[in-house]
Write a structure and sequence with these properties.
Elements lengths: L11 H4 L1 E4 L2 E4 H23 L4 E7 L3 E7 L5 E6 L2 H12 L3 H10 L1
Antiparallel strand pairs: 1-2, 3-4, 4-5
Helix pairs in contact: 2-3, 3-4
């Protein structure tokens, strides 16, 4: 995307994006993405709560929101960023009823 000069109105193309977390998505998909993102987030949190002592979310100014899990010593043992690429991968796993396998594989890495 081309840089805008100060004081100029944003172009039509720039106005057609909406911010979700730290990401700018086309307005046409932003509301659907929010619903999908929330569903994936809830399932990831459910998966993590079944395995770890504590589960919460954190916001990172560079990476966006993440689900994190802590062990009994309150050490972080799992982090999953809720960025568009990860949401897409998690959704593909959900569609195949393999989200548990997908997340377990990430945890092992």
């Amino acid at each position: 995307m081309a840089k805008r000069k100060k004081g100029n109105k944003p172009s039509t193309a720039e106005q057609e994006f909406e911010q979700v977390d730290i990401f700018y998505l086309p307005k046409a998909v932003a509301s659907m993405y929010r619903v999908l993102r929330q569903a994936v987030k809830e399932e990831i949190m459910d998966w993590a709560q079944a395995k770890f002592s504590s589960v919460t979310t954190v916001s990172d100014p560079d990476e966006g929101e993440a689900v994190i899990a802590l062990n009994a010593d309150q050490e972080e043992v799992f982090r999953y960023y809720l960025n568009p690429n990860n949401i897409s991968q998690a959704q593909q796993a959900r569609d195949k009823d393999r989200l548990d396998d997908y997340l377990s594989q990430l945890f092992e890495d």
